[in-house]
Amino acid sequence: MSPILEIQDLSVAYRTPGGDVRAVEHVDLTLNAGEVVGLCGESGSGKSTLAYGATRLLRPPALVTSGKVLYGGCRVTSGGHPVDLLTMSHRELKSMRWREIAIVFQSAMNALNPVLRVQDQLLDAVQSHLRLPRGEARDKVATLLDLVGIPRGRLRAYPHELSGGMRQRVMIAMALAADPEVVLMDEPTTALDVVVQRDILAQIVELKETLGFAILFITHDLSLLLELADRIAVMYAGRLLETGTAHAIMREPAHPYTRGLLNSFPSLHGPRRELAGIPGSPPDLRDPLPGCPFVPRCAHAIDVCTSVAMSLAPVPGIPGVVSHLTACPIVTPEVSQEGVLS
Amino acid sequence: MPFIVRRLAFYFVAAWVAITLNFFIPRAMPGNPVQSIIAKFPNLTPDAEKALAVMLGGTLAKGSLWSQYVTYLGHVFTFNFGTDIANFPTPVTTLLQQSIPWTLTLVGVATIIAFVLGTGLGILAGWRHGGWLDRSLPGLMFLQAIPYFFLALVLVDVVAVELHWLPAGQGFNGATTTPGWHWAFIGSAIQHAILPAFTIVITSVAGWMLQMRNVMITTIGEDYVVAAQAKGLPSRRVIYTYAARNALLPQLQGFGLALGFVISGALVMEIVFAYPGIGLLLLNAVSSDDFPLMQAIFLVITFAVLIANLIVDLIIVFFDPRVRAREVGR
Amino acid sequence: MRAVANVWRNLPLKAKIGVWLFGFFVLAAIIGPEVAPYDPSYANPDPALLQAHPSAQHLLGTTQTGQDVLSQLLVGIRMTMELALLVGVIATALSVIVGVTSAFLGGVWDEVLSLLSNVFLVIPALPLLILLLGYLPGKGQLSTILVLSFLGWPWGARVIRAQTLMIRNRDFVAAARESGEKSWRIIALDIIPNEISLIAASFVNTVLYAIGASVALAFVGLSDLNTWSLGTILYWAQSQQALQLGAWWWFAPPGLAVALIGTSLVLLNTGIDELGSPRLRASRGAAKIAGHRIWPTDPTPVYAQLTASRSRVGAFLHSFSRGSLLDETPAGGEL
User: B250: Cβ–Cβ under 8 A, 6 or more apart, which residues?
Assistant: First the structure.
């Protein structure tokens, strides 16, 4: 498994007159070719900022304050070295966009141009990267609609003439227009009803199997990720609290926050139990407290939690599983010894 | 109901309100306008007096208020505004026919030039929000606050009287040419239209530019523009087809709303240039209490504005597919 | 008082200029006629002083009939300002009443009032004003005020109605209604306070309209030609061929006064805008980050790239700015 997108130590802040709002703090995240990685967190956790910051789509006053975003797709790398998105010029970025990394936005109604027909918007995506002759381009566009299960008659439609589910499918079709290696999906099904949600998720899985792209799936719905993702990363207040395979997180959640999330929704199996939410609300990112940001809401917090440096370390326990990491000093006490602030 | 049909219905209501106001104002005002006219112009024929009565009411009017109204409506729809008072016996319609083409060409062409120019500049200013074009806006806002006719006064004084670059007034050089479709006249007419047109363009361009810039800034913040950039589309395509094309719709609506104001300002400006359009006609009408002419001018201008608004609505329907969709009641 | 000082500090430069400029004209309106050197109607028969250039005796020259332009200007400013402000008050009050009522009552009343507003918005104002004023036997200050107010309310009414509809649907108003508060109390205590900046902006726009319209009407001859408003001065200048005779001192000062008052109002409005929805727009525009201007359509900047590209002189200069303090904060968060 070779990493196709490697986010290293990424920090993104919003520079306001009142100070820097630290939306993303030192995040490491790796996406391997053909893999589905789920990024989970509540609103304000920084998950969208992470994705758009990594692809440099955030508007001012956003600023990337540290890190590298290495892309290793073979079409771009020369000599086998991955390129750093953060050092690329506007022109290089533009040619790389969509062709290598595509995005499915959250609200299709807002992300589609209201005055252009579906066909024209798809053609835009195709023609900016693959200079095909007109007839071929149209065929390609029609094929894309076939891929997502939309009748070809809808090509000449405007976005407002489509249903919500169909619009989302158009977004997906558009994302696949230039045959990307990585697709970032930002809460693509949140605005849809459950039945349509199922359909679209099934479609996404099928397309991934056929075309072989990697997916970074962003959502607040952990239950969705448990079924869909290969690996899951849990984000809170701009930091990663836990990463691991979906299986490991479901069976043995290490961080108290992850456990809280899992307890928040019912499972289909097992006895009925009382649902517990997580009391409190996310912290103010302008004035981050030292140590773990979850402390104010954590039932298990101890002294060391407020003074330890945040970093992911392997969860002890299951032998042979090194990929399950968490930043909780209770679970991984060895870290706290090294990282204690004076 | 289709959008256009609803708009048409609205304009009919507005036209009816204007016509009815026109009927009631002379009858509701204190004083007896008809008597004062007859006193000033004793040599009116009985027919002329009757026509006056239809328009203005007063003691000569026959029949109930309702029957007067009906007769009045009949006259309006046949464009029978009666005989003019000050220029007796010329019919009012003749005077209008002479002046309307001048105003229509000047104001129409100048306003369209100003709108297109302003909108284009606004697109650029909005795209590079904070750039030099954008920062010149406060200065341009000053221009917007200047009444049209004041700038006209300044321009005439500087360019025409002091520098003698362009003629100081009139529609054409009456000493050297007569109206007609020949080059001498057209050339002279164009020469005389340059300053007035320039005045209109200069004072209104800032307004259109500011408006378009603001709409562009809002539009650029929309998700579909970010999505267009995420798609790696060339900048030109993003600016024009994604941002400007959408920003154009509120801009056009603003244009429709501002039309009445633009035309009013232009009329007063015509007076400064002694331009042979409706503005000058209006001045003469006011100074000689020529009520029939004043009423006719009011109706003509109102109808022109309503028609222009309808045209703008048609253009909006052409550009916005969502508006067309309202036909199916979605 | 401190609140006022705070507000003042946060206003953009444009708005401050507007306030100063408008204040200047208010002052001129108040004390102007008292300090005028001559009676504006006094026609000095001395032939040397007919349509004379500005001189020590007559700072702004004289008219065709020997009247002092400066005195006329000072009286004119007061007349025009008085008229415009009164129209502003009356028409804004009308538009608030119509707008709030229309939004609050809803249903048929809303439809009717909205239709009325829209009709009066689309019918061009000036010709109708000319018609109204033309028929009135006396065309003095009072008549003009009444006529202008009659047509000055639709714009504000529309805007206020839209805002009231939005507020009306918000939770706290629904709560008030549930608890049985009387409608007029809800309007006075909940709705209007939330619309202050909108009403202020509407007032400024109405005053702007009143100035433009009254000057235009007077220019066409529809005012009491024996009084001295800015518009009548221009009327006389125009009809006495001041332009053709090159007497710029006659028409330039009143026209400039009108333009400046108008500009100050426009600038004031930007200040009100800013107070009403502060900094929201600023965040959409270009930002200065680490000394570089970043357009909204640029890719998200990377700090390391920005600082690398700054020259040494630039870096030195930048270290004096407030922004450099933010740069120096270590990104790790431990302060």
Answer: B215
